[in-house]
Design goal:
The protein has helices at 6-13, 40-48, 96-107, 144-153, 179-195, 197-216, 250-260, 264-282, 324-345, 349-354, 359-371, 443-459; strands spanning 2-3, 22-30, 59-62, 72-75, 85-89, 118-124, 131-138, 242-249, 291-298, 310-317, 384-389, 397-398, 401-409, 418-425, 428-435. By secondary structure, the chain is α+β, with helices and mostly antiparallel strands.
């Protein structure tokens, strides 16, 4: 038994019939050079032979009878790969829109909590004989950095390495823990967490004092929560999802960040801001003040426990500013202020407090909030989430087939109904955007505007190029 951290468990507690807390990871492969070509059975065999490299794929979540403590990961004695692996065919002509439609349908259905929290859909019938693998995995099992590690574990850098490494021993899952075992373990975990509260309070007080001193020293400030303008995607969710994807030049993003002397993440945020400005203006909904984005940052270090080691920065997205260079400077200053505040508070502060989250009351409150559509009646702390995950820099192969594209989709939340996730692979930046179709029925237009906004930033680059910010 391995207990979920409070941060991991929080993704379970946040889930409602409308607020799905899973993510999608999409790999498009070209099997033309794979030994023996492509067959579903051959891929199933390859995946089965690699499951020992990802033990969490055969684990499920169990709670104590009263749900007093955070749940645990345990081996699922009823694990059956065929309950997680599915097969479907894209509608003709098998283009990007057809794949996005399948991903949208997959994203709209929650995962079954009575089994390991993942499933994979093999999408055949794509143009050029390509095949896509759409993996849906609950956020409590992996953040973006951990998902990238998992992708590496089941792929190879050598197309000839088709056979997976052998398992050191046969997998023999034990029976599920008894009620008595779960109650005993829950009591022990609660006692351990309670004993740590005085120390956590002391660390928090010291961190807040440091933050007050830091803010008194001046310097750039992060965006304030609840300060962003309200948009069409800042309301209550429905269970339905629309996912739209697109690809951009990573080299072009790097040129922009170098020319303006910012970071790559700043350039991505500025690109999203420019696209949103045009998109909202076309809809007649351009606000007169900025938006606020939540920007996840990995806090993972060697030996960290938990599937999620991530914090969030609040960054201003000045969609009200017409000049692209000024927008990027504003974003850079806001991001620097957010990072400085984050460094003062410490990477683990919120994660440590999340250990105290009371699961059953919190879950009940979230379901009530969602059922009453209360997100339509108040202002959200942020407007959207923009995530930038670095992917592999060398070609990867899956069962001998070359991966040509990689996309990722993050969750949307009540009141925060837009998520833009970019995943870099080789020399491309692959963007995945998700929202409820009832809020944004023309989401593809936003993705079409991303390269337009990137061109606009490059055209506004100063000459000569500035020195990049580390």
């Amino acid at each position: 038994m391995e207990r979920l951290t409070g941060q991991d468990a929080g993704f379970l507690y946040n889930e409602t019939p409308a607020q799905h807390m899973h993510t999608l990871k999409i790999a498009v492969v070209d099997p033309s050079d794979a030994p023996g070509g492509y067959s579903f059975d051959a891929f199933r065999q390859a995946l089965s032979g690699r499951l020992h490299l990802l033990p969490e794929m055969r684990q499920r979540v169990v709670f104590d009878p009263l749900r007093l403590a955070h749940p645990w990961w345990v081996d699922d004695p009823d694990f059956d790969l065929d309950r997680h692996l599915h097969r479907t065919t894209a509608a003709a002509p098998g283009d990007q829109r057809a794949l996005d439609a399948i991903a949208s349908r997959i994203a709209s259905e929650p995962l079954d909590r009575d089994r390991p929290l993942w499933e994979m859909w093999v999408v055949e019938g794509l143009a050029g004989g390509q095949v896509a693998f759409v993996t849906k995995i609950h956020h409590c099992a992996a953040d973006g950095a951990r998902a990238a590690e998992m992708m590496t574990a089941v792929t190879e850098t050598d197309p000839d390495l088709v056979e997976p490494p052998p398992s050191p021993r046969r997998w023999r899952p034990p029976p599920l823990p008894s009620r008595r075992q779960l109650v005993s373990r829950a009591a022990r975990d609660i006692a351990q967490i309670t004993l740590g509260v005085p120390g956590l309070v002391g660390r928090t007080i010291r961190a807040l004092r440091s933050l007050v001193r830091h803010r008194g020293e001046g310097g750039p400030r992060p965006a304030l929560p609840f300060s962003g303008a309200t948009t069409a995607f800042n309301g209550a969710l429905t269970p339905n999802r629309t996912f739209v994807s697109g690809a951009l030049s990573l080299d072009q993003v790097k040129r922009v960040k170098s020319a303006h002397g910012t970071t790559l993440n700043d350039a991505v945020l500025a690109m999203v801001t420019g696209a949103l400005r045009r998109y909202l203006d076309e809809r007649g909904e351009l606000p007169e003040r900025p938006l606020v984005a939540g920007v996840p940052v990995s806090t993972r270090t060697g030996g960290d426990q938990g599937a999620n080691r991530v914090s969030n920065l609040f960054v201003t997205l000045p969609v009200d500013e017409p000049d692209p260079a000024t927008r990027l400077r504003t974003i850079n200053a806001s991001a620097r202020g957010a990072k400085a505040q984050y460094n003062v508070l410490g990477a683990d502060m919120l994660a440590d407090w999340s250990e105290l989250t009371p699961g059953r009351p919190y879950s009940a409150a979230m379901r009530w909030y969602s059922r009453k559509n209360l997100a339509d009646k108040g202002r959200a702390p942020i407007n959207l989430v923009v995530s930038n995950v670095p992917g592999p820099r060398e070609p990867r192969f899956l069962a001998g087939a070359r991966i040509t594209e990689m996309y990722s989709m993050g969750p949307i939340l009540e009141g925060i109904g837009l998520n833009v996730t970019v995943w870099s692979y080789l020399d491309r930046l692959y963007a995945g955007v998700v929202a409820c179709p009832e809020a944004l029925g023309d989401l593809r237009r936003l993705v079409e505007l991303l390269p337009v906004a990137l061109d606009e930033l490059e055209a506004a680059s100063p000459t000569p190029a500035a020195t990049p910010t580390p």
